[in-house]
Amino acid sequence: MNKIGVAGLVVLLVLLMTSALGCAAGGSKVAVISLVGPIQSGETGFLFGPAVTPEKVREQLRRADKDVGVKAVVLRVESPGGSVAACQEIVAEIERIKKPVVVSMGGVATSGGYFISAKADKIVALPGTLTGSIGVIAQIPNVKGLFDKLGIKVETFTGGKHKDMYFGLRELTPEEKEIMQEMTDQYYDQFIQVVAEGRNLEERKVRELATGELYTGAQAKELGLIDELGGLQTAIDTAAKLAGIEKPKIKYYKPEPISLWSFLFGMDFKELRSFIQLRLLGAEGAVLLEILSRPYPEPRYQ
Prior knowledge:
Layout: H1 3-26, E1 29-36, H2 54-66, E2 70-79, E3 82-83, H3 84-96, E4 101-110, H4 112-115, E5 122-125, E6 130-132, H5 144-150, H6 174-199, H7 203-209, E7 214-216, H8 217-223, E8 228-229, H9 232-243, E9 249-253, H10 260-264, H11 270-292, E10 300-301
Parallel strand pairs: 1-2, 1-9, 2-4, 4-5, 4-6, 5-8
Antiparallel strand pairs: 3-10, 6-7
C-alpha cells in the first residue's frame, strides 16, 4: 500500500473514531422538562402566569423522544392539578414515550399534579413536597340568590328534563344530585386506576389513600406513592441509571418562546376581558358573568 493509501486509511480511522466518540457523547443526555402551573386545556395569557397544557407537554416529550442523544427524561412537576381531560391527555403522552421517564416533584405536586406523575417509571420528591390529594371535585354554583339581589329574572325553556341543571339558576333535584355524584365517582375511579397501575398498588390500597388529603414527600415515600426522596439531581441520577448512563449530560428543554401577540392576548382576550369586567361591573357582576360563561361544570383533579 502506498503512502497516500496509508494516509487515507489513517484519516478514515480518525474520522470513524471521532464520529463514534461524538455519538457516545451525544447519546448520554438526560432531558429535563419543566411542568409548572395549573393543568388546563389551551394557553394562558399574561395575567395569571404559565400553565401546563397537553399541547406543550406533547411538543416537549416528542422532541425528547426524537432526539437520539437523549436517553431518558426528567419531568419537573410543580402543579396543584386542574382539568381532568387535560391530565388524562398528558398521561397518554407520557405513556407513549419509549425512553425512561422520571418525575421530580417540586414544592407542590398535588391531585392532577400527582395524576400526571403516577405512570412515570420513578417518582422522586423532596421530604417537604406536598403531594397526594388524590380525588376529584365538580361544582355547580347556585346563583339564584345573586340573580334575585340584582333583580334578574330568567325564563328557561328546555328540551330534556335535566338540560338546565348545570346553569346554577335553581336547586338541583335529588335525582340530579345523584347524576352529578355518579359522574364524579367515575372520574374518581379513573384516578384510582391510574395510580394503581402506575404505582403497582392494589386498588384497595389506593382507595384507602385516595381521601383527598395531602401527604408530605416523606409520608408519600412510606405509603408507596413515590420511590425516592431527593431533589432534581437525584431524579437526574435515577433517570441516568435507568438508561444505563454513567455520566449524564443535562439538556434543559424550554418551551418555544411565545409571540408578543400571544403574550398580550392569550386565550382570546379571556383574561383581559375578565379584568375589564371586574373593573367595570364590580365583583358581583364579574362573578356572575364568569359563571354564566361556563355553563357546564368541569370536573377537576384539584
